[in-house]
Specification:
The protein is of the alpha/beta class. It is 47% helix and 14% strand. It contains 19 helices and ten strands. The longest helix is centred in the middle third of the chain and has 24 residues. The protein is globular and about 70 Å long.
Amino acid sequence: MNALSRRSIIAAALVFGAAPALSQPVPTRPVTLELFGLASHNWQLVIDRFQAQYPNIKIKFTKFSTDEMKQALRVGASSGKLPDIWWNWGGSLASPYNRAGYALKITPEVQKEYGIDQNVTPASLDITRDGADLYGIPNKIGPFGFIYKKALFAKYNIKEPTTFQELEKAAETLKANNVTPFSIGGKFSWMTMRFFDFFLEHYAGPAGHDALLSTETPWTSDPVVKSFAKLKEWSDKGYFPKGFLNIDPSTNLPLLYNDQAAIVFDTPSLETSRIIRENMSPADYGTFPLPTDHKPLRAPGSPSQFQINAKTPDETRQAALLFVSFAARPEIAPVTAEAVGYPSATKGILPPENLPIQRKWAEWTQGEVGFYKLTDQGLPQDVVASYFEAQDSVILGAMKPEEAAEQVQEAITRFKKRNN
């Protein structure tokens, strides 16, 4: 992020004012905290400010790549050597640590004492919960929406779709003019999954979608079959690039740059991580929420959260709670956003106006747009591989939508038998 954007972020935060520091418990003796996080997140920015304010608390920050992080947490849990604090995703990527008693439960009393309920948006807390309980403090929610090339929409007289039918009409218009509607990298399956999730939200509705992810409703139900069928239909119509199942997800934007495709289904952080970094102008791109035809309007969301080791000594736990709640304070949240990205999980924190895509999403997720879990974070991890296989098999014509639904349900049944 350049210096101008950094100054603009701080200025935007100051519009809302800095809340006074809360009267939170502070360790009286020196404490060292071990923190595990992703190398792509610059947590040192937050750590430096925290240690300046609380000089008796030192933080040892160890960085990992995505796969290394997952492995480090698995090894730490199995060996009894988890760090005091670790960064984590949400859903079923975090739930094994929650339900095995490794992650500290953040009770309503703790939320009040550390200002969490005061500072963090309700939608961010909701998507971070594991069932009814909270085991981590969110600092960012990564929503996913449609980002499009404005020039192509203008050229073919396409308005931002507000209904599912309008989105399909836009795709038909683009395809008829030899423009691929959606640029997608289907290698590794998770980018394709976003479209299935969107279809599931459309066909099942918010309550039905949640019931499917919690496996309360069988996956052989009609909305699942329709979602697999729609995925196959869009693929057959050429709404995705030819051979997209073999395309790396990191290569999805060049087709937009070259006007060969019109839309990507991705996070608004592309604005800084790709568009600006690759010397393109954010002004050339627009964004719109998923037209699911349901209220409340929801988007897929993936939380960025800190979790605390439930087995740490009291004073260490006290210091850890102080740090994770510090990152969510209104006066610190802009620095946290610089470290991890937007939209911030903290109330009232918006990106600057020179980041229009992220600003729009921050405004939406602070208000009218809620979240649903991605399938690979909603379903048990033991089931996800079966889902991915079924999804890709439907696209390739090796499996019918009904057969794909049955395969996922069989994987869920096996998982439940093993864990009863």
